[in-house]
Amino acid sequence: MGNLSTPKSVQKLQTALHAKAKAEAGYRFYALYDKISREDILAHAYAQCRSNKGAPGVDGQDFADIDGYGVQRWLGELALALRQETYRPDPIRRVYIPKANGKLRPLGISTLRDRVCMTAAMLVLEPIFEADLPPEQYAYRPGRNAQQAVVEVEALLFRGHPEVVDADLADYFGSIPHTDLLKSVARRIMDRRVLHLIKMWLECPVEETDDRGRKTRTTEARDKRRGIPQGSPISPLLANLYMRRFVLGWKMLGLERSLGSRIVTYADDLVILCRRGKAEEALRQLRRIMGRLKLMVNEEKTRICKVPEGEFDFLGYTFGRMYSAKTGQARLGYRPSRKSIKRVIESIHTVTARSGTWQETTELVGQLNRTLRGW
Q: Same structural domain for residues 125 and 264?
């Protein structure tokens, strides 16, 4: 559960929680809130948030401000607020970042105080829920990554699953219903104070600033009782928990066997690989199950692909018929998609732009390495 930089006391707690959850599938944890406010947990959460950097939230506070105030003093006050149950999250600052298709994606930026608190909760909760997540889910998990998902898709194509439902969900993060999501959490967590924390984070108001600098606050998530903010430390775990419902539902209905199908998911990226002639039924079942989960399939972007006649994109790669550069022979495989190549080239241009500010060579090389590693 931990890594080399994780304090031994935190690792010990995470290992114990994971072992208990793994050994007893029906066990519900009831004394977790006090662990979130532990000094070592909050200190490590703060260190993680600091390493991730990130912009200030609605209060404008950054790490330099906390250094000036005193990190230990700041963490002590947060711990006290949690223990006395006076902690209340601040509104989320919403910004928009450009997507590859030219559209804008909303990103929620919490205050440092809230980010540290959410990360502390993640340190305690993730080992528990990691024991429950099925192998089909690859995102936001220790020891798992997008490249493993890509390799698994290629392996399934080779093993005789040539028909693919290339699925797209309409606003997955913004559509997750709070009541059902909290039921998924409560299946393992019966500590009401922890559930209340998560509920408060889900219902946080959102603050936006228009072109004239005017600020407006909305309570859309609380009013509609759906949606989790993209960008918050707790969102990846919650997104995985709700997607778990789909994966388990698919298996419980016997669709793996009857359709010869296998699922691979990475957050809201989803493909279903089937035996020949089964993709149409798989798509129908996908719509039905997602409807029961109160989610919508994006019909414009969801399609059936038959390999090797056709190609499909998944996690930045194009899958289908490839040709050897040496022999010219055809084979099944994958290559970087045109969209991902274009995105990397644009990122490199941005980093190395002559019109940009002068940078130390080592800093420039570091930025380029991060860009290429991410690709």
A: no
What sign has the CA pseudo-torsion 42, 46, 52, 53? positive
Per-residue pLDDT reduced to its tens digit, 41-56: 999 999 999 999 889 9
Q: Does residue 3 have a pLDDT over 80?
A: no
Q: Are residues 345 and 221 in the same domain?
A: no
Q: Are residues 293 and 362 in the same domain?
A: no
pTM reported for the whole predicted model = 0.88
Taking the CA atoms of 217, 98, 89 and 296 in sequence, report the sign of the dihedral they define. positive
- 248 in the same domain as 114: no
| Whether 297 contacts 169, CB under 8 Å | yes
Q: What secondary structure, in 3-state letters, does 204-216 show?
A: CCEEEECCCCCEE
Spatial neighbors of 212 by CB under 8 A, at least 6 apart, are: none
How many separate domains does the chain show?
Answer: 3
* Tokens of residue 204, six digits: 């946080």
Nearest to 125 by CA among 236, 200, 249, 49: 236
**Residue 211 resides in a domain:** yes
Same-domain pairing of 103 and 211: yes
- Per-residue pLDDT at 306: 96
